[in-house]
Amino acid sequence: MLDQIKGLHHVTSMAASARTNNRFFTDTLGLRRVKKTVNFDAPDVYHLYYGDEVGTPGSVMTYFPFPHIARGRPGSGEVGTTLFSVPEGSFGYWRERLTKAGVEGLKTDSAFGENRLHFAGPDGDGFALVEVKDDPREAWTGNGVGEDHAIRGFHSASLRLRDEGATAELLKFMGYDKVDAKDGVQRLRIPGGNGADVIDIETMPNINGARLGAGSVHHIAFAVENREKQLEVRKALIDTGYNVTPVIDRDYFWAIYFRTPGGVLFEIATNEPGFDRDEDTAHLGEALKLPTQHAHLRAMLEEHLEPLDA
């Protein structure tokens, strides 16, 4: 069993409108845009990152906004819901704030003894807030949400699968422990993690496969401290039979990818070097940052990409 993985690093999804996406995560959810760059494989599309003040691993929601992309179809083989940690007693504030912003899909429930407030993102994305007592992570309060209510980072993510068996065994190999199971949901937690410690597996044997589109999670990333730990994980996964990519430099972290038995795309990402490698912390996410291979496209991209703050 591996011990290098420390919880979630980031979750990357797809959107239809960059401006709407940016407004939702900054104005409505109060997160900070920590990086404005482009998709390495499709540089005419943004890659936007939102999180806490510095984009701490375990707090970062990222998006590829493809203009006019069709809405995704929920189904098996994907991340179903991404859940954020908020302080106990903050649901009244968030219900009022989300309602005022016209957010759809508001409903409350509880699972594994925790209260949850579900809501939909602009493209039908599945989200929920979870009330967590004494989450020690520092919140970003620069976008108008106070310390008593602000998002601390991820709480968890759920995987929607037709058969949980092989993926559950993979997560256990990655260092997760099964801690509970109820109503077709198996809960796994990484011990001593970074706060974004929980994965829930929802077993749904009778639903069709998901279709990727706006509102869909493209991949889910798990955090390791550095490149040395990442290479240890990569070797162990390959030795176990997984087809893992070479290490890819994503400027703000190094990444490897592999497809899980249930169909979900997993990434293992390093905590280093971080989002302040090319911007001062005070100005994260303000300028358009381009990877070296696309730097020559700056004039065209600045003309083509949708203004975020207009």
TrEMBL record:
The gene is mhqO. Residues 7-132, 153-271 form the VOC domain. It is an enzyme of class 1 (oxidoreductase). This is Putative ring-cleaving dioxygenase mhqO. Gene3D superfamilies: 2,3-Dihydroxybiphenyl 1,2-Dioxygenase, domain 1. PANTHER family: RING-CLEAVING DIOXYGENASE MHQE-RELATED. InterPro entries: Extradiol_RC_dioxygenase, Glyas_Bleomycin-R_OHBP_Dase, Glyas_Fos-R_dOase_dom, VOC_core. Signal peptide: none annotated. Pfam families: Glyoxalase. The lineage of its organism: Bacteria, Pseudomonadati, Pseudomonadota, Alphaproteobacteria, Hyphomicrobiales. Its EC number is 1.13.11.-. Keywords: Dioxygenase, Oxidoreductase. GO terms for molecular function: dioxygenase activity. It comes from Pseudorhizobium banfieldiae.
